[in-house]
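Structural prep section.
Before we set up the soaks we want a predicted structure of the protein with biotin in place, mainly to decide which crystallisation condition to try first. Input record follows.
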Amino acid sequence: MVLTTSLLLLLGLALLAPGLSADQPQCVLTGNWTNDLGSNMTIGKLSSNGEFAGTYITAVTTTKKEIKASPLVGTQHNNTQPTFGFTVNWNFTDSTTVFTGQCFVDEHGKETLKTMWLLRSHVDSIKDDWKATMVGTNNFTRLHTHLE
Ligand code: BTN
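Run finished without errors. Recording the tokens verbatim:
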């Protein structure tokens, strides 16, 4: 009897512990997102092994070139607040950005992608390698379209 009560107590505590709640909502990467710079991205459906593809429209650029929608590919873990990574292969210039982050969902169901990125610019000489990489952070929130 005492053992059963203790086991039930332990089970209850485990379920109530933050991050272990059985009904923690799923943070989903698929959809439309906007970040603190005003950039927008769309992430498509996840494959069975956690791979995804999408499109990124940056609001800013280090170049004087016309911004175009560029492809992204990435992977995520399979849990309720997954970590992920994706690469944007800019198609209007010869730079590349990698993002890594985690998808969080709060008690109201609001999702946020907390990310860090590395932007590698093309340089003509190895002598310029030292100035070729920028680092930063972006926070993304879901863009709700009127169709939903
Ligand atoms: C370039 O200028 O070389 C290509 C576009 C880079 C845009 C960067 S990627 C990191 C940061 N977050 C954004 O949404 N845009 C900028």
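Observations: The first helix runs from residue 2 to 16.
Flagged for discussion at group meeting.
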